[in-house]
Write a structure and sequence with these properties.
Helix content is 40%, strand content 16%. It contains 15 helices and 13 strands. It has a six-stranded antiparallel β-sheet with strand order 8-11-10-9-12-13, with helices on both faces. It has a three-stranded antiparallel β-sheet with strand order 4-3-7. It has a two-stranded antiparallel ribbon with strand order 1-2. Helix 1 crosses helix 4, helix 12 packs across helix 14 and helix 12 packs across helix 15. The longest helix has 19 residues. The radius of gyration is 25 Å and the shape is globular. The structure holds zinc ion (ZN).
């Protein structure tokens, strides 16, 4: 089979295109039928890099980094240290004092190692030593919502939908069925094929079924059209009309892929919703006398772990087919969904083993002075993390594992009870109060940090 670019039909100088830009996923998927310059490299400057830069705060949080570079994408943050504001570009999480010289926004203060400051100021009397463990540090990261509704995002999402659908169907070369989407991706002209799902219940359902921070892709036939729905990090779901009619050369029109942050993935493909349903009911029949309530139990012995995934995909696709209120422009409702999804993802990820271990490693460094919490801090993320360390330290637990840890959180964080994690200012100020009320809290934090450092599976 000859390879030909799916955008222009060129046969020379083809390349492997990262369907989702490499910097936005740890689970790469490729389309090999894309010409190198015009329809791969150029897209990066045209629209991808803009989205990648704007979302770098999220990719940092989710531990996603480009396989080409060793670094996380940089993001901008405003840090308030001891009352002065510093605008910084950060990589990774807690590297504020990474040997650099910080200049405050009002240009009156500089901050670095003592030796460096004496060298710069040439006058030791102008340099005031500070203890970083006692500093009041607040980090604020501006999040640009506009990027989610920008032309760059719509073009990138269209590109992902088109290249993924073509890769799954082994499409080779240019086809006029895809005229509109190709024109939109390559020039930004033509009808925008993207709309945004705004049913908040579908977001809640998705959040429960897929992993945190996953990209989830669905393809299906809807009223003659081919639709691809892409959930980007679980933040927003974009619907893309890939083709107004079903292309005769594409037989796989029921597709599902989940790409997780740990680089694992799930993939399901069938010809149509009907054949997928037939496959699933056949699967169910082979399990002797199954009752619905036993599905969860059966799954532990049944070799096909995807048994529970099918009903979820059927439900989602049927809803996608029926809803007709997609948004074409930003609105209050979408902003609320986005804010809520963003909070859930960031806060839940904060409570992941990996994030907690990273926090403890960065804060409780060897030989540090006792931790003094700043009573006025409003940094919800670090209060939450300190509270978790405090919970571990004040429990009777000597050794942690995932299960013990989850139970501890469930028992003490009321926010878990509704299955939904919402950390409000009110809750964090309660956490802060609880820690500060205990005069012995620095020792308890040390004990908690020690146990967390020993935590291995
Ligand atoms: Zn091309």
């Amino acid at each position: 089979m000859d390879r030909k670019c799916i955008y222009c039909g060129k046969v020379k100088d083809l390349s492997e295109s990262d369907i989702i830009p490499d910097a936005l996923t740890n689970a790469r998927i490729l389309n090999k039928n894309v010409c190198r310059i015009e329809h791969n490299n150029k897209f990066s400057d045209m629209f991808e890099s803009k989205v990648i830069n704007a979302l770098s705060f999220i990719t940092n949080k989710l531990d996603i980094k480009s396989s080409k570079g060793k670094n996380y994408a940089a993001y901008n943050a405003t840090i308030t240290i001891d009352g002065s504001e510093y605008n910084l570009s950060l990589h990774g999480n807690n590297n504020i004092f990474n040997g650099r010289v910080l200049k405050s926004s009002d240009k009156t203060q500089m901050l670095s190692s003592y030796e460096k400051m004496v060298k710069i100021s040439k006058d030791e009397s102008k340099v005031h030593p500070v203890d970083v463990n006692h500093l009041e540090i607040e980090k604020r990261v501006p999040i640009n919502y506009e990027i989610f509704y920008s032309q760059s995002m719509y073009r990138m999402i269209s590109k992902i939908a088109f290249e993924w659908y073509c890769a799954q169907n082994s499409v080779i070369g240019y086809h006029q069925e895809f005229d509109n989407i190709i024109s939109f991706i390559t020039t930004g002209k033509g009808e925008n094929p993207v709309s945004i799902i705004q049913e908040s219940e579908l977001y809640m359902y998705l959040t429960k079924q897929v992993d945190l921070g996953s990209h989830t892709l669905f393809a299906f036939e809807s009223h003659e059209e081919i639709n691809v729905v892409i959930s980007l990090f679980g933040l927003l779901m974009y619907r893309v009309v890939v083709s107004k009619i079903k292309p005769k050369f594409c037989s796989k029109n029921f597709l599902f892929t989940e790409l997780r942050t740990d680089s694992s993935r799930e993939k399901i493909e069938h010809d149509s919703l009907e054949t997928a349903e037939a496959y699933f009911s056949d699967l169910i029949k082979r399990i002797p006398s199954i009752k619905h309530c036993e599905i969860e139990f059966m799954i532990s012995t049944e070799p096909n772990p995807r048994l529970l995934l099918y009903p979820f995909i059927f439900d989602m696709i049927k809803c996608f087919k029926n809803i007709q209120n997609d948004a074409k422009a930003p609105n209050e409702n979408l902003n609320n969904i986005l804010r809520k999804q963003l909070e859930t993802i960031i806060q839940t990820f904060t409570l992941h083993k990996k994030s907690i271990k990273r926090f403890v490693k960065d804060i409780f460094v060897e030989g540090h002075s006792p931790i003094q919490l700043n009573p006025h801090t409003n940094d919800k993320n670090s209060i939450l993390l300190f509270y978790v360390v405090y919970l571990v330290g004040s429990s009777n637990i000597n050794k942690l594992n995932d299960n013990i840890f989850q139970n501890l959180l469930r028992e003490h964080l009321s926010l878990y009870k509704s299955e939904e994690l919402v950390v409000t200012n009110e809750i964090t100020s309660q956490f802060k109060k609880k820690i500060l009320e205990n005069d012995n809290y620095p020792d308890i934090l040390e004990k908690g940090a020690h146990i967390i450092k020993q935590w291995n599976n």
